[in-house]
From TrEMBL:
Superkingdom of origin organism: Bacteria
Gene3D superfamilies: Ribonuclease Z/Hydroxyacylglutathione hydrolase-like, Winged helix-like DNA-binding domain superfamily/Winged helix DNA-binding domain
Organism classification: Bacteria, Pseudomonadati, Pseudomonadota, Alphaproteobacteria, Hyphomicrobiales
Coiled coil feature spans: none
Protein name: MBL fold metallo-hydrolase
Domain Metallo-beta-lactamase as annotated: residue spans: 39-211
Keywords associated with the record: Hydrolase
Keyword Hydrolase: yes
SMART domains per record: Lactamase_B (SM00849)
A Pfam family reported for this protein in Swiss-Prot or TrEMBL: Lactamase_B
Length: 293
């Protein structure tokens, strides 16, 4: 089994632009939490005529920081990896300030969840000016971004590949500091597995995620994610076959080493795993209760 190790060494100052490469700058949002780590990463791609990826939550200080970072430049595109409330809401105000069009896979049609509300709750007001399909390209002087459809964490999740630097803006699909929460009904574990496998066929050399530090040589991390999810899924199936019936009972058993503050998020991913097991015919769901198949 591939080991999954995390990197939580991430010493950054919110609002201060940090150059990561010749084409990439990062501006961290000051919205730290158990789910966002030190905050949401916004990225500026290019010089002179630039794209902004994931402006972040609707926050006055973040808008000011982004506008200051691109002073004297022209924002030509605003790209959004997915419409969670810590990634997309500021796109509206950034568009008003710059005139740049917003681009993403599309809006989310799923109803608001009646369960736990995380920082990553859905921004139902987000509708991009233009929809991107898998393989679409957005470009500017010296930079080329390819849209890569990666549903799972969210049904409209996209990554963006920067061809000139063999880099991937990974959103919340793959992060170096922690695993991603998959929250039904919009999050889908089967799609998530498929989207992880999709990355294994690509050649990006560095991932810039939506939270936490960038990751060089990222494919071992992707393989670690896949192995970790398969391990969790087998542990969940075993608990059900041993008689566990409630999600809370399963979480208490297999997430005993996880901070209890995160058990709500673990319950969401556990439910996604259970639904995936049902879809594979490995469990069945009868009157809301999961049983051995």
């Amino acid at each position: 089994m591939t080991d999954l190790t995390f990197d939580r060494n991430f010493d950054v100052t919110p609002g201060q632009p940090q150059r990561l490469s010749p084409l990439v700058r990062r501006v961290l949002v000051n919205n730290a939490s158990p789910y966002t780590f030190k905050g949401t990463n916004s990225f500026i791609v290019g010089t002179g005529r630039v794209a902004v990826i994931d402006p972040g939550p609707d926050d006055d200080a973040q808008l000011a920081a982004l506008l200051d970072a691109v002073k004297g430049e022209t924002v030509t595109h605003i790209l959004v990896t997915h419409s969670h409330a810590d990634h997309s809401p500021l796109a509206r105000r950034l568009k008003q300030a710059t005139g740049a069009a917003t681009l993403a896979y599309g809006a989310v049609e799923a109803p608001p969840s009646s369960g736990l509300r995380l920082d990553a709750s859905i921004d139902h007001d987000f509708v991009p000016d233009a929809r991107l399909a898998d393989g679409d390209v957005v470009s500017g002087p010296g930079w080329t971004l390819e849209a890569l459809f990666t549903p799972g964490h969210m049904s409209n999740h996209m990554c963006f590949a920067l061809k000139e630097e063999r880099a991937l803006f990974a959103g919340d699909h793959v992060m170096a500091w922690a695993t991603s929460v998959i929250a039904p009904p919009d999050g889908d574990m089967g799609q998530y597995f498929a989207s992880l496998r999709k990355l294994l066929d690509r050649d990006e050399q560095v991932y810039h995620p939506g939270h936490g530090p960038s990751r060089r040589d990222p494919l071992p991390l992707v393989r670690g994610y896949l192995a970790h999810r398969r391990m969790r899924e087998e542990a969940i199936r075993a608990r059900v076959e041993q008689g566990a019936r409630s999600v809370s009972e399963i979480v208490a058993a297999i997430y005993a080493d996880v901070d209890p503050k995160l058990h709500g998020a673990a319950a969401l991913s556990t439910t996604a795993h259970l639904d995936h097991l049902v879809a594979q015919g490995k469990l069945r769901k009868v009157e809301g209760v999961y049983e051995a198949a």
